[in-house]
Amino acid sequence: MTDRPARFVVAVVDDDQSILCSLEYLLDSADYTVRLFHSAAELLASGDLDRIDCLISDIDMPGTDGFELLRLVHAARPKMPTILITGYPERLERVSSGETNPRVFTKPFKADELLAAVSDGVRNLPS
Question: What is the CATH number of the domain that holds 18?
Answer without folding.
Answer: 3.40.50.2300
